[in-house]
Design the sequence.
């Protein structure tokens, strides 16, 4: 696909992610940290988030299975997960995490359980959108690299 | 290069502060590391209080693993960590004769005034709300460099 179209696509995707509330300004902080030293910083951090949070989610899932539920433990695990969500700007996921913590505080197991389903949904939805977005941005970067290489070869 | 004096806070070079960043969260460690590097700092990270104390040479019988050549000019630590909290780490640093002058900054995702006051009373330089922004870190490193120069 032609680079202009790719750039338009990337811009559209990025704008939607913000407009639809999937991401907040923390994501922009990540983008601002991307530079020549770390040209893939955003994708790297997001990938790290998704791999690291697997165990955090697993911990919460396991804790939800204990009888009686240990709300302190649930809240602790959620606090860790929420911190990570916050650091990458995962707005909708973070919102559900806050809701989960509120249910922990009132020891509402049903609320925790339902909210956890919602967290998983938002988490997966965001992942799919970001993977697609990074595919496009990576393609743009690749095209730039190829162009530069061709220019250098011409010299 | 400045010669070591009786003070521990002479930097290797006046322009490169060495910061020890402590956080149990991997994402936050990566972030704070990048933020600090972007502010021209040398960064060492630790994932918990005990490891941080080890790196600072404050464990019993421990040597300063940085061998006196790369002293830490600033410690930035998360408050909520399993085992030793950032507050407890702060206390241990302030209680030591060797490291008590090191500025310690506490980070937290929660804005709890009693928590903030407790840390400031114990000698924390600053309390920063997470998630950290580039502007927070720039402010911090500017302050640090101004003190040192």
Sequence:
């Amino acid at each position: 696909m032609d680079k202009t179209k790719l750039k338009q696509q990337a811009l559209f995707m990025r704008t939607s992610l913000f407009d639809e509330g999937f991401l907040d300004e923390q994501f922009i902080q990540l983008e601002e940290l991307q530079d020549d030293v770390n040209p893939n910083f955003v994708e790297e951090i997001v990938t790290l988030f998704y791999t690291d949070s697997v165990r955090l989610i697993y911990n919460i899932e396991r804790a939800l299975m204990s009888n009686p539920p240990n709300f302190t433990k649930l809240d602790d695990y959620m606090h860790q997960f929420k911190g990570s969500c916050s650091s990458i700007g995962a707005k909708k996921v973070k919102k559900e995490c806050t809701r989960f913590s509120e249910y922990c505080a009132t020891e509402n197991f049903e609320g925790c359980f339902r909210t956890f389903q919602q967290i998983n949904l938002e988490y997966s939805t965001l992942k799919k959108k970001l993977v697609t977005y990074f595919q496009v941005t990576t393609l743009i970067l690749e095209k730039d690299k190829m162009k530069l290489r061709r220019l250098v070869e011409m010299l | 290069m400045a010669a070591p004096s009786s003070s521990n806070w002479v930097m290797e070079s006046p322009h490169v502060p060495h910061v020890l960043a402590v956080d149990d969260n991997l994402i936050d460690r990566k972030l704070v590391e990048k933020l600090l590097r972007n502010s021209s700092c040398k960064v060492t990270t630790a994932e918990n209080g005990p490891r941080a104390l080890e790196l600072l040479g404050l464990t019993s019988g421990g040597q300063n693993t940085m061998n006196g050549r790369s002293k830490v000019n600033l410690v930035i630590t998360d408050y909520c960590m399993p085992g030793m909290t950032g507050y407890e780490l702060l206390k241990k640093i302030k209680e030591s004769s060797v490291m008590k002058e090191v500025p310690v900054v506490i980070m937290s995702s929660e804005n709890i005034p009693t928590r903030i006051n407790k840390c400031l009373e114990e000698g924390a330089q600053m309390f920063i709300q997470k998630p950290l922004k580039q502007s927070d870190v720039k402010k911090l490193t500017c302050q640090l460099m101004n003190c040192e120069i």
Summary: Residues 49 and 83 of chain B are 8 Å apart (CA to CA). Strands of chain B lie at 18-22, 42-46, 74-78, 104-108, 126-129. The interface with chain A takes residues 24-28, 30-31, 34-35, 38, 80, 109, 130-131, 133-134 of chain B (CB under 8 Å).
